Amino acid sequence: MNGQPKRHPRRPKGTKPQPHDLAFKSLYGFRLMAGDLLEIVLPKDLLDRIDWDSLERLPEEWLSPSLDQRRGDCVWRVRLCGGGTFIFPIEFQRRLDRLMPVRLNTYSSLLVEDLAKRGELDQGPRGRMLPLVHPVVLYNGMRPWRSPLKLSALTPDGRGDWPEMTLLDMGRVAIEDLPKGNAVTAQVEALQGGLARDDDGILRRMAARLGGSAHRALRSAFVEWVWHSVAPDLGADAALLEPELIRIVELGEVQEVKTLMMKSMVDHWLAEGEARGIERGEARGIERVRADQRAQLSRLAGRKFGGRAADRLSALIKGVTDPERLTEVGDWIIDCDTEAEFLARARR
Hints:
The chain is about 50% helix and about 15% strand. It contains 14 helices and ten strands.
């Protein structure tokens, strides 16, 4: 209507979240990651009061009084031994934001209002009590964080610090300062190049924390995060991560778990290659993309069935340019249990 201010949504209508944002959000949707993050950001006296059995995820969408929809990244709640509730919103940042304390203050206020509407505030001797809200920002940006951490840094009188946020600069924090045997520590190690420099060491530490079938989904989420947040910065060297990522998914599990990672890689490489070919728009460029795809498929076949299968497949698909046929070959690598079954399909 004329004369009324326009409302600007946080994210422009019609745009989609970036893959690295979705991968981060998926990773911190697991209780183990949320709990390990608390071990890093909370002081010991508060950490000792946590009732770990009560850890639960809360909705990340709220409506303001003017019915504007606001959406955070991830929110967890936990009860405190002796009474009270502790809530920690988790936000993922790749860019500096001077007004980050203001944004987190808005989220926290809407979050508490939502809990009040649902009748989920704690009851104290004098009525309903506010929870302890402690936002955590996981920063993964190119430049060091120099933006304010508190509202007081944005006010002339130095007041207004509810809530105070904690920043974890994942690319610069000293790993030796983080707790050992912690999944978030492993994530920081991977972000700082640990998979390339000390892959055996980081894999041993991850196996101790994330090994076995109980954490299969979390390991797959971790690998997705690596692909979208770490691998793009490596360029052509991203392929060197393949063995380490397969080993991550396999931690403490049987052979068939490898297919989870393989499917992700096949889909990633074929889609990425197709995009490169379309972008170049040249026959020679398309041919090069197809050659790269055939080589990647042969490597995957070798990883699962052995070197002979890789050599056989390389000969069988030499000259194949139909993207649907190459995708079908990727499906065979995933679906077949034995080398003989796989080669039989490839020959046909």
